[in-house]
Amino acid sequence: MIILVIGVSGSGKSTIGKQLADSLHWEFSDADSFHSQENIEKMRNGIPLTDADRMPWLQDLQAAIKQWLQENKNVVLACSALKASYRQMLVLDKERIKIVYLKGSFQEIEQRLRSRRHHYMSAELLQSQFDILEEPTDAIKVDISDTPEHIVQHIRVSLEI
Ligand SMILES: Nc1ncnc2c1ncn2[C@@H]1O[C@H](COP(=O)(O)OP(=O)(O)OP(=O)(O)O)[C@@H](O)[C@H]1O
Ligand SMILES: O=C(O)[C@H](O)[C@@H](O)[C@H](O)[C@H](O)CO
After folding, report:
1. Which segments within the chain are labelled E, that is strand?
2. Counting atoms of ligand 1 from 1, which one is nearest the CA of 18?
3. Recorded GO terms, molecular function (predicted)?
4. What residues does 29 pair with on adjacent strands?
5. pLDDT tens across 139-150, in order?
């Protein structure tokens, strides 16, 4: 099974994804590590990515997901996947790929981004993330104001894993 942990920058994808994977003894993968140097530079300079910028990144993620499915791997993938069309590219198998959406308010997430250090994604880019966000309707929805421990528990109960 593959769990996609999605949401805007700073919603907690890496934090929750990692803890979820650890608790399940599954592999954890971060879509951030699939970005090209050009994309990272753009974000570092406070420029939001376009659909065209994201396309090769999504294709690489799609290839990785295909491989994991073929190998029957259990993986938690932290990935923004903000638009429905992006998610369509990643959910290659509805039975074996589940989406967890980390939902939070602009204010709460902005505060978290402002106190986070050493990351190329700044609080200034957050509005652009909310602007393009298309909330999923077919996902497990999680309130990010809860503690990571509770969130992980909630996800496991919802997915019965
Ligand atoms: N449930 C939570 N409660 C309190 N703090 C949290 C929670 N989840 C994440 N954080 C903190 O919020 C900040 C953002 O989290 P994190 O880096 O995991 O988000 P992200 O969605 O992976 O961000 P990005 O997409 O920019 O990589 C971090 O400093 C993290 O420690
Ligand atoms: O789609 C995007 O704009 C990007 O994936 C960003 O969301 C960042 O990669 C990530 O959130 C920061 O680490």
Report:
1. 2-6, 27-30, 75-78, 97-103, 140-143
2. 18
3. ATP binding; gluconokinase activity
4. 77
5. 999 999 999 999
Give residue 150 CA to ligand 1 midpoint distance, Å. Answer: 15
Residue 86: phi and psi, rounded to 5, are -65, -45
User: What are the tens digits of pLDDT across the range 70-108?
Assistant: 999 999 999 999 999 999 999 999 999 999 999 999 999
Does the C-beta of 17 come closer than 6 Å to ligand 1?
A: no
Out of 8, 61, 121, mutate this one to test ligand 2's pocket (max ligand atoms within 8 Å of CB): namely 121
- Ligand 1 atom 4: the closest Cα is on which residue? 147
ipTM given for this complex: 0.96
* Whole-number percent of the chain with pLDDT over 70: 99
Average pLDDT taken over every residue of the chain:
96
- C-alpha dihedral sign at 56, 91, 74, 130: positive
Report how far apart, in Å, the C-alpha atoms of 61 and of each of 4, 45, 132 are.
11, 24, 20
Alpha carbons 85 and 107: distance in angstroms, whole number: 26
**Ligand with minimal distance to 57 CA:** 2
- Segment 115-123 shows an average pLDDT of 79
